[in-house]
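User: I'm putting together a teaching handout on how multi-component assemblies are represented. Below are the sequence lines for each component of a complex, exactly as they appear in our records. Could you produce the 3D structure of the whole assembly as C-alpha coordinates, so the students can see both representations side by side? Please keep the chain order the same as the input.
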Amino acid sequence: MERYPLITIDKNKLANNARAAIELTARKGIIPVAITKLFQGDPQIAQVLVDQGIKSLGDSRIQNLIKLQDIDAEKILIRLPMLSEIDLLVEYADISLNSEFDTIRAISEYCVAHGKSHKIVLMLDMGDRREGILEEDLDDMIERIITLKGIQLVGLGVNFGCYGGIIPSPEAMKRFGEYKNYLEQKYGLTLTHMSGGNSLTLHMIWENILPEGSTHLRLGQSINIGVEDRYGGVIDGFEGNAYMLHAEVIEKKRKSSVPVGQIGVDAFGNVPVFENRGDIDRVIVGIGKQDMYFDALTPVDEGVRIIGGSSDHMILDITDAKRDFKVGDILSFEMGYSSVLMGLNSDYVYKKLID
Ligand SMILES: *Cc1c(COP(=O)(O)O)cnc(C)c1O
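Assistant: Of course. Below is the structure of the complete assembly, with chains in the same order as your input.
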Protein backbone atom coordinates (compact mmCIF):
# COMPACT_ATOMS: atom_id res chain seq x y z
CA MET A 1 0.00 0.00 0.00
CA GLU A 2 1.26 3.45 -0.91
CA ARG A 3 1.70 5.79 2.04
CA TYR A 4 1.11 9.53 2.12
CA PRO A 5 2.04 12.35 2.01
CA LEU A 6 4.36 11.34 -0.79
CA ILE A 7 6.77 13.18 -3.05
CA THR A 8 7.39 11.34 -6.31
CA ILE A 9 10.65 12.10 -8.08
CA ASP A 10 10.56 11.48 -11.82
CA LYS A 11 13.87 9.96 -12.99
CA ASN A 12 13.17 10.61 -16.66
CA LYS A 13 12.51 14.31 -16.10
CA LEU A 14 15.68 14.69 -14.03
CA ALA A 15 17.66 12.80 -16.66
CA ASN A 16 16.21 15.04 -19.37
CA ASN A 17 17.19 18.15 -17.39
CA ALA A 18 20.73 16.89 -16.86
CA ARG A 19 21.09 16.38 -20.62
CA ALA A 20 19.48 19.75 -21.35
CA ALA A 21 21.89 21.47 -18.93
CA ILE A 22 24.89 19.75 -20.51
CA GLU A 23 23.76 20.76 -24.01
CA LEU A 24 22.91 24.36 -23.17
CA THR A 25 26.15 25.05 -21.27
CA ALA A 26 28.22 23.29 -23.96
CA ARG A 27 27.34 26.14 -26.35
CA LYS A 28 29.74 28.24 -24.29
CA GLY A 29 32.18 25.45 -23.46
CA ILE A 30 30.86 25.43 -19.89
CA ILE A 31 30.63 22.43 -17.55
CA PRO A 32 27.47 22.19 -15.43
CA VAL A 33 27.92 21.48 -11.71
CA ALA A 34 24.71 19.77 -10.57
CA ILE A 35 23.66 21.13 -7.18
CA THR A 36 22.35 18.38 -4.91
CA LYS A 37 21.24 20.30 -1.81
CA LEU A 38 17.57 20.35 -2.84
CA PHE A 39 17.48 16.54 -2.48
CA GLN A 40 19.86 16.35 0.50
CA GLY A 41 22.58 14.69 -1.53
CA ASP A 42 20.55 11.51 -2.08
CA PRO A 43 23.02 9.27 -3.97
CA GLN A 44 20.28 7.53 -5.99
CA ILE A 45 19.08 10.83 -7.41
CA ALA A 46 22.63 12.07 -7.98
CA GLN A 47 23.38 8.86 -9.89
CA VAL A 48 20.52 9.61 -12.31
CA LEU A 49 22.27 12.88 -13.17
CA VAL A 50 25.76 11.37 -13.36
CA ASP A 51 24.44 8.63 -15.68
CA GLN A 52 23.54 11.39 -18.16
CA GLY A 53 27.07 12.78 -18.17
CA ILE A 54 27.15 15.16 -15.20
CA LYS A 55 30.76 15.10 -13.98
CA SER A 56 30.65 17.56 -11.12
CA LEU A 57 28.35 17.74 -8.07
CA GLY A 58 28.04 20.60 -5.63
CA ASP A 59 26.34 20.87 -2.26
CA SER A 60 26.25 23.48 0.48
CA ARG A 61 26.33 20.87 3.25
CA ILE A 62 29.30 18.63 3.92
CA GLN A 63 26.91 15.97 5.28
CA ASN A 64 25.41 15.66 1.80
CA LEU A 65 28.81 15.37 0.13
CA ILE A 66 29.61 12.55 2.55
CA LYS A 67 26.49 10.71 1.31
CA LEU A 68 27.78 11.18 -2.25
CA GLN A 69 31.23 9.78 -1.60
CA ASP A 70 30.73 6.63 -3.71
CA ILE A 71 29.42 8.53 -6.74
CA ASP A 72 32.02 8.94 -9.45
CA ALA A 73 32.07 12.74 -9.85
CA GLU A 74 34.04 15.76 -8.70
CA LYS A 75 32.58 17.13 -5.44
CA ILE A 76 32.43 20.79 -4.53
CA LEU A 77 31.39 22.35 -1.22
CA ILE A 78 29.51 25.45 -2.36
CA ARG A 79 29.00 27.08 1.03
CA LEU A 80 32.09 28.63 2.59
CA PRO A 81 33.62 25.95 4.84
CA MET A 82 33.50 26.29 8.62
CA LEU A 83 36.78 26.04 10.54
CA SER A 84 35.13 23.22 12.51
CA GLU A 85 34.61 21.02 9.42
CA ILE A 86 37.96 21.25 7.66
CA ASP A 87 38.88 17.60 8.31
CA LEU A 88 35.61 16.48 6.67
CA LEU A 89 36.04 19.00 3.87
CA VAL A 90 39.46 17.71 2.84
CA GLU A 91 38.30 14.11 3.15
CA TYR A 92 35.01 14.38 1.21
CA ALA A 93 35.26 17.40 -1.11
CA ASP A 94 37.71 17.96 -3.95
CA ILE A 95 37.04 21.68 -4.15
CA SER A 96 35.48 24.37 -1.96
CA LEU A 97 34.28 27.92 -2.53
CA ASN A 98 36.11 30.29 -0.17
CA SER A 99 36.33 33.95 0.78
CA GLU A 100 38.27 34.04 4.06
CA PHE A 101 42.07 33.84 4.19
CA ASP A 102 41.99 32.36 7.71
CA THR A 103 39.88 29.47 6.45
CA ILE A 104 42.05 28.86 3.37
CA ARG A 105 45.14 28.91 5.60
CA ALA A 106 43.52 26.39 7.97
CA ILE A 107 42.73 24.11 4.98
CA SER A 108 46.36 24.46 3.86
CA GLU A 109 47.67 23.59 7.32
CA TYR A 110 45.39 20.55 7.54
CA CYS A 111 46.48 19.34 4.10
CA VAL A 112 50.17 19.76 4.89
CA ALA A 113 49.81 17.97 8.24
CA HIS A 114 47.96 15.02 6.67
CA GLY A 115 49.70 14.78 3.29
CA LYS A 116 46.52 15.74 1.42
CA SER A 117 45.57 18.33 -1.16
CA HIS A 118 42.50 20.47 -1.78
CA LYS A 119 41.40 22.88 -4.51
CA ILE A 120 40.21 26.39 -3.76
CA VAL A 121 37.80 28.57 -5.73
CA LEU A 122 37.92 32.16 -4.48
CA MET A 123 34.50 33.81 -4.32
CA LEU A 124 34.12 37.36 -5.61
CA ASP A 125 31.16 39.50 -4.53
CA MET A 126 30.16 41.38 -7.68
CA GLY A 127 27.03 42.96 -6.28
CA ASP A 128 24.63 40.46 -4.71
CA ARG A 129 26.28 41.03 -1.31
CA ARG A 130 26.22 37.52 -0.01
CA GLU A 131 29.62 35.78 0.14
CA GLY A 132 32.85 36.80 -1.55
CA ILE A 133 35.73 39.24 -1.40
CA LEU A 134 35.33 42.64 -3.04
CA GLU A 135 37.06 43.10 -6.38
CA GLU A 136 39.40 45.76 -4.96
CA ASP A 137 40.84 43.12 -2.59
CA LEU A 138 41.47 40.51 -5.29
CA ASP A 139 45.21 40.99 -5.89
CA ASP A 140 45.97 41.22 -2.20
CA MET A 141 44.13 38.00 -1.49
CA ILE A 142 45.69 36.08 -4.41
CA GLU A 143 49.19 37.14 -3.32
CA ARG A 144 48.53 35.70 0.13
CA ILE A 145 46.88 32.49 -1.09
CA ILE A 146 49.65 31.52 -3.52
CA THR A 147 52.18 31.36 -0.69
CA LEU A 148 50.22 28.49 0.93
CA LYS A 149 51.18 24.82 0.54
CA GLY A 150 48.83 21.83 0.22
CA ILE A 151 46.14 23.78 -1.59
CA GLN A 152 45.74 24.83 -5.18
CA LEU A 153 43.89 27.94 -6.31
CA VAL A 154 41.91 26.72 -9.35
CA GLY A 155 39.53 29.56 -10.05
CA LEU A 156 37.20 32.34 -9.10
CA GLY A 157 33.50 32.09 -8.35
CA VAL A 158 30.61 34.49 -8.28
CA ASN A 159 27.04 34.23 -7.08
CA PHE A 160 24.00 36.29 -7.98
CA GLY A 161 20.33 36.33 -7.10
CA CYS A 162 20.24 34.43 -3.85
CA TYR A 163 20.47 37.28 -1.30
CA GLY A 164 20.27 40.58 -3.13
CA GLY A 165 18.14 39.30 -6.01
CA ILE A 166 20.70 40.83 -8.36
CA ILE A 167 20.64 39.54 -11.96
CA PRO A 168 24.16 39.10 -13.41
CA SER A 169 24.91 41.84 -15.93
CA PRO A 170 27.01 41.44 -19.09
CA GLU A 171 29.38 44.09 -17.63
CA ALA A 172 29.94 42.17 -14.39
CA MET A 173 30.34 38.87 -16.22
CA LYS A 174 32.82 40.48 -18.62
CA ARG A 175 34.96 41.70 -15.71
CA PHE A 176 34.63 38.26 -14.10
CA GLY A 177 35.83 36.54 -17.28
CA GLU A 178 38.72 38.96 -17.74
CA TYR A 179 40.11 38.16 -14.32
CA LYS A 180 40.99 34.69 -15.67
CA ASN A 181 43.59 35.92 -18.16
CA TYR A 182 44.73 38.70 -15.88
CA LEU A 183 45.45 36.38 -12.95
CA GLU A 184 46.88 33.58 -15.07
CA GLN A 185 49.40 35.96 -16.63
CA LYS A 186 50.26 37.95 -13.53
CA TYR A 187 50.67 35.00 -11.15
CA GLY A 188 51.33 32.06 -13.50
CA LEU A 189 48.15 30.33 -12.39
CA THR A 190 45.96 27.89 -14.36
CA LEU A 191 42.35 28.72 -13.57
CA THR A 192 40.30 25.70 -14.62
CA HIS A 193 37.27 26.53 -12.46
CA MET A 194 35.76 29.90 -13.28
CA SER A 195 32.44 29.33 -11.55
CA GLY A 196 30.20 31.92 -13.17
CA GLY A 197 27.08 31.68 -11.03
CA ASN A 198 23.91 29.61 -10.74
CA SER A 199 20.79 28.99 -12.86
CA LEU A 200 20.33 32.75 -13.09
CA THR A 201 23.29 32.96 -15.48
CA LEU A 202 21.74 30.47 -17.96
CA HIS A 203 19.63 32.99 -19.85
CA MET A 204 22.85 34.77 -20.84
CA ILE A 205 23.79 31.64 -22.80
CA TRP A 206 20.55 31.33 -24.78
CA GLU A 207 20.44 35.09 -25.31
CA ASN A 208 24.05 34.90 -26.44
CA ILE A 209 25.17 37.70 -24.10
CA LEU A 210 27.47 35.73 -21.80
CA PRO A 211 31.03 37.06 -22.08
CA GLU A 212 33.97 34.64 -22.31
CA GLY A 213 35.71 33.38 -19.20
CA SER A 214 33.27 31.19 -17.25
CA THR A 215 34.12 27.49 -17.30
CA HIS A 216 31.46 26.22 -14.86
CA LEU A 217 27.91 27.04 -13.75
CA ARG A 218 26.35 25.70 -10.55
CA LEU A 219 22.86 24.53 -11.48
CA GLY A 220 20.26 23.75 -8.81
CA GLN A 221 16.73 24.75 -9.71
CA SER A 222 17.22 24.41 -13.46
CA ILE A 223 18.35 20.78 -13.29
CA ASN A 224 15.89 19.83 -10.55
CA ILE A 225 12.69 21.62 -11.46
CA GLY A 226 13.51 23.05 -14.89
CA VAL A 227 13.20 26.72 -13.98
CA GLU A 228 15.30 29.84 -13.51
CA ASP A 229 14.40 33.19 -11.98
CA ARG A 230 15.22 35.64 -14.79
CA TYR A 231 12.05 34.88 -16.75
CA GLY A 232 10.33 32.56 -14.30
CA GLY A 233 8.91 29.71 -16.41
CA VAL A 234 10.24 26.33 -17.46
CA ILE A 235 13.36 26.71 -19.61
CA ASP A 236 13.16 25.58 -23.25
CA GLY A 237 14.21 21.93 -23.46
CA PHE A 238 13.90 21.38 -19.69
CA GLU A 239 11.04 19.65 -17.84
CA GLY A 240 9.16 21.14 -14.89
CA ASN A 241 7.47 19.05 -12.21
CA ALA A 242 10.06 16.32 -11.71
CA TYR A 243 8.93 16.54 -8.08
CA MET A 244 5.20 16.12 -7.33
CA LEU A 245 3.39 16.06 -4.01
CA HIS A 246 0.54 13.66 -3.31
CA ALA A 247 -1.60 13.98 -0.16
CA GLU A 248 -4.59 12.04 1.15
CA VAL A 249 -8.05 13.36 2.01
CA ILE A 250 -8.87 12.79 5.71
CA GLU A 251 -12.06 14.88 5.88
CA LYS A 252 -14.61 16.07 3.35
CA LYS A 253 -17.45 18.32 4.52
CA ARG A 254 -19.55 21.33 3.58
CA LYS A 255 -18.97 24.15 6.08
CA SER A 256 -19.20 27.91 6.29
CA SER A 257 -16.21 29.66 4.70
CA VAL A 258 -15.85 31.88 7.78
CA PRO A 259 -15.08 30.21 11.14
CA VAL A 260 -17.67 30.73 13.87
CA GLY A 261 -16.93 32.60 17.13
CA GLN A 262 -14.56 35.33 18.29
CA ILE A 263 -11.31 35.42 16.24
CA GLY A 264 -8.05 35.30 18.22
CA VAL A 265 -4.82 34.05 16.60
CA ASP A 266 -4.09 30.98 14.44
CA ALA A 267 -1.51 28.21 15.09
CA PHE A 268 1.31 30.54 14.03
CA GLY A 269 0.24 33.57 16.06
CA ASN A 270 -1.33 35.47 13.14
CA VAL A 271 -4.83 36.92 13.14
CA PRO A 272 -6.53 35.15 10.22
CA VAL A 273 -8.77 36.97 7.74
CA PHE A 274 -11.57 35.17 5.86
CA GLU A 275 -13.57 36.03 2.79
CA ASN A 276 -17.26 35.22 3.29
CA ARG A 277 -18.30 32.96 0.44
CA GLY A 278 -21.17 31.30 2.27
CA ASP A 279 -21.02 27.53 2.65
CA ILE A 280 -18.25 25.78 0.72
CA ASP A 281 -17.27 22.17 -0.02
CA ARG A 282 -13.88 21.52 1.53
CA VAL A 283 -11.40 18.73 2.10
CA ILE A 284 -8.62 18.39 4.64
CA VAL A 285 -5.50 16.49 3.49
CA GLY A 286 -2.93 14.96 5.81
CA ILE A 287 -0.01 17.32 5.41
CA GLY A 288 0.79 20.52 7.30
CA LYS A 289 2.91 23.60 7.45
CA GLN A 290 5.48 21.63 9.46
CA ASP A 291 6.16 19.59 6.31
CA MET A 292 5.39 21.85 3.44
CA TYR A 293 5.56 25.41 2.17
CA PHE A 294 1.96 25.87 0.97
CA ASP A 295 2.54 29.02 -1.10
CA ALA A 296 4.70 27.20 -3.66
CA LEU A 297 2.13 24.45 -4.33
CA THR A 298 -0.35 24.28 -7.22
CA PRO A 299 -3.15 21.68 -7.05
CA VAL A 300 -3.32 19.64 -10.25
CA ASP A 301 -7.14 19.32 -10.08
CA GLU A 302 -9.00 22.12 -11.77
CA GLY A 303 -11.11 24.32 -9.49
CA VAL A 304 -9.28 23.27 -6.30
CA ARG A 305 -7.73 25.96 -4.11
CA ILE A 306 -5.63 25.80 -0.92
CA ILE A 307 -7.37 28.04 1.62
CA GLY A 308 -5.17 27.48 4.63
CA GLY A 309 -4.11 25.03 7.26
CA SER A 310 -2.09 24.48 10.38
CA SER A 311 1.02 22.51 11.38
CA ASP A 312 -0.57 19.18 10.45
CA HIS A 313 -3.51 20.04 8.17
CA MET A 314 -4.06 21.53 4.75
CA ILE A 315 -7.58 22.75 3.93
CA LEU A 316 -8.76 23.07 0.33
CA ASP A 317 -11.88 24.59 -1.19
CA ILE A 318 -13.29 22.09 -3.71
CA THR A 319 -16.60 23.84 -4.39
CA ASP A 320 -15.65 24.49 -8.03
CA ALA A 321 -13.81 21.18 -8.55
CA LYS A 322 -14.72 18.97 -11.52
CA ARG A 323 -13.79 15.88 -9.52
CA ASP A 324 -15.94 14.43 -6.76
CA PHE A 325 -13.68 13.89 -3.73
CA LYS A 326 -14.12 11.42 -0.90
CA VAL A 327 -12.08 10.38 2.13
CA GLY A 328 -9.01 8.40 1.04
CA ASP A 329 -8.70 10.17 -2.33
CA ILE A 330 -5.32 11.54 -3.34
CA LEU A 331 -4.73 15.14 -4.40
CA SER A 332 -1.60 15.92 -6.39
CA PHE A 333 0.31 19.21 -6.48
CA GLU A 334 2.98 20.80 -8.63
CA MET A 335 5.83 22.04 -6.46
CA GLY A 336 7.95 25.19 -6.54
CA TYR A 337 11.51 25.30 -5.23
CA SER A 338 10.71 26.11 -1.59
CA SER A 339 8.06 23.41 -1.30
CA VAL A 340 10.40 20.76 -2.74
CA LEU A 341 13.11 21.90 -0.33
CA MET A 342 10.85 21.79 2.70
CA GLY A 343 8.99 18.62 1.72
CA LEU A 344 12.11 16.56 1.04
CA ASN A 345 13.50 17.74 4.39
CA SER A 346 10.47 16.49 6.32
CA ASP A 347 10.77 13.05 7.90
CA TYR A 348 6.98 12.81 7.69
CA VAL A 349 6.87 12.93 3.89
CA TYR A 350 7.51 9.69 1.98
CA LYS A 351 9.75 9.92 -1.07
CA LYS A 352 9.81 7.67 -4.10
CA LEU A 353 11.92 7.69 -7.24
CA ILE A 354 9.69 6.75 -10.22
CA ASP A 355 10.37 5.84 -13.87
C1 LIG B 1 22.16 26.82 -4.08
C2 LIG B 1 23.33 27.37 -4.75
C3 LIG B 1 23.43 27.34 -6.15
C4 LIG B 1 22.32 26.84 -7.06
O1 LIG B 1 21.45 27.89 -7.35
P1 LIG B 1 20.21 27.68 -8.33
O2 LIG B 1 19.60 29.03 -8.41
O3 LIG B 1 19.31 26.70 -7.68
O4 LIG B 1 20.75 27.20 -9.62
C5 LIG B 1 24.60 27.81 -6.73
N1 LIG B 1 25.61 28.31 -5.98
C6 LIG B 1 25.54 28.37 -4.65
C7 LIG B 1 26.69 28.94 -3.90
C8 LIG B 1 24.41 27.91 -3.98
O5 LIG B 1 24.35 27.96 -2.65
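A couple of points students might notice: The mean pLDDT is 97. The pocket of pyridoxal-5'-phosphate is lined by residues 35, 37, 60, 78, 159, 198-200, 218-222 (CB under 6 Å).
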